[in-house]
Design brief:
Length: 191
């Protein structure tokens, strides 16, 4: 069975990439782990999702009618929109190893992106260095991203409470000098 690709890299650096979804509103969830099949394969955590006009500086107009009706009456409007997501790079594959540090090269433009499988998420999130990378990621809502990433991984770990305990211990190690922030993160992760 072939991978379920849903997007293509349209902008790339060694720390972050932007991918355009092939279908409108069909992005992976905020905080989920995705894989870019480039050389080397790169892992990222979705840090922002946006749907906007394909024409810079031109915003969509509100019509005051339900989306289904708008699709029937003016389907061309949806051809002028695109959904993109940004992901913070948290590692790459160096067969047979998964490295949780920045890859030697950014993902190539036009590389395909897919959500990680449950097994890939479990393998990747069995190590904790990605949390430090998320804590230091620039221009992202760091705390919200960590909460979403841990909760997403928790689902892949079949909601195993031990996974949450290990995540809490790692966060307490990383945030030992910021008790209030740690408390807020742990409370919201466990809700």
């Amino acid at each position: 069975m072939s991978p379920e690709y849903l997007a293509e890299v349209v902008e790339s650096s060694t720390t972050v990439f932007t991918a355009q979804c092939w279908e409108l509103h069909n992005s992976p969830p905020f905080g989920s782990l995705v894989r870019v099949d480039s050389d080397p394969p790169v892992f990222g955590v979705v840090s922002d999702v946006a749907t906007r006009s394909i024409e810079p500086g031109r915003r969509p107009i509100a019509y005051g009618i339900p989306e289904e009706q708008l699709r029937e009456e003016q389907p061309q409007i949806f051809e002028l929109l695109r959904t993109e997501f940004e992901a913070v790079i948290v590692g790459y594959e160096d067969s047979p190893y998964i490295r949780q540090f920045l890859p030697p090269h950014p993902p190539r433009i036009h590389s395909f992106v897919r959500p990680c499988s449950k097994d890939e998420v479990r393998t990747f999130t069995g190590q904790w260095d990605f949390l430090r990378m998320l804590l230091s990621a620039p221009r992202v809502p760091t705390d919200e991203l960590i909460i979403a990433a841990v909760r997403s991984a928790f689902e892949a770990w079949d909601r195993d409470r031990n996974y949450l305990v290990r995540a809490g211990k790692e966060l307490s190690r990383l945030l030992k000098n910021d008790y209030e922030r740690l408390g807020s993160l742990v409370r919201r992760i466990s809700q």
